[in-house]
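Lab meeting, item 3. Inverse folding demo.
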């Protein structure tokens, strides 16, 4: 009798390989920032925007947050939690710089995580448009998420004054 393992074997690539895959150039290359901005802003979906945005940060989020969560949670929830963790780490960084509690990035990044899930579910794809239109779509979604988070923040703050 043969036992078949149902566990997926995940191969981990090194950071420099990941960055090259996302930007087309090696880690530390002078074209890295330009390529990241061009690829992320010009992405054909909002989910793809995040695949190209800040590859060093996304590498570590994938390795230490998304993958472990995916073992125990449904994919959609692991994605949402990864966005929330990223936001919380941004909140922590700003809190340490300003020396007072900041709690804005966690909800904002969570809203953007929901936007990734919704646009993916609706198959919202703008591949047929020019780079400028794709960049406008991606930036518009980010701004809409920011404005929604600001509105939620104002309602929450007013409710507890």
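The presenter then showed the designed sequence:
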């Amino acid at each position: 009798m043969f036992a078949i393992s149902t566990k997926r074997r995940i191969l981990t690539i090194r950071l420099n390989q990941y960055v090259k895959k996302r930007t087309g150039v090696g880690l530390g290359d002078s074209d890295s920032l330009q390529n990241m901005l061009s690829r992320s802003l010009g992405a054909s979906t909002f989910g793809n925007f995040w695949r190209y945005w800040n590859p060093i940060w996304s590498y570590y989020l994938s390795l230490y947050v998304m993958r472990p969560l995916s073992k125990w949670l449904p994919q959609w929830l692991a994605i949402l939690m990864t966005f929330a963790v990223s936001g919380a780490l941004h909140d922590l960084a700003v809190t340490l710089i300003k020396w007072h509690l900041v709690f804005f990035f966690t909800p904002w990044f969570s809203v953007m995580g929901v936007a990734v899930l919704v646009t993916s579910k609706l198959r919202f794809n703008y591949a047929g448009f020019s780079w400028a239109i794709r960049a406008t779509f991606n930036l518009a979604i980010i701004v809409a998420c920011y404005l929604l988070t600001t509105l939620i923040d104002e309602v929450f703050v007013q409710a507890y004054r």
